[in-house]
Design goal:
80 residues, Ubiquitin-like (UB roll), 2 helices
């Protein structure tokens, strides 16, 4: 069980983690999808980010749509 001191530490570098935003990119082979302003837990020190399951599911839906439309470049703003 994690104690309070380690609960807010990055498992990679030991830095402080906090709620913030990240940019998600997916290479589709024929194009790329970029989703900006994605809610994430992010390390202030190393920049590594983690997504919750709901956000990951929503990103998967966005990427699937771009794949179906054969978008070469698509930049999307994540909206709550």
């Amino acid at each position: 069980m994690k104690n309070e001191a380690t609960a807010h530490r990055c498992p990679l570098c030991g830095g402080h983690i906090e709620q913030g935003e990240t940019v998600f990119t997916a290479e589709l082979g024929f194009g790329v999808v970029v989703v900006r302003h994605v809610p994430a837990t992010t390390c202030r020190d190393c920049g590594e980010s983690w997504l919750d399951d709901e956000t990951a599911d929503r990103l998967e839906t966005m990427v699937d749509r771009a794949r179906r439309e054969q978008s070469q470049v698509e930049v999307i703003a994540y909206k709550n």
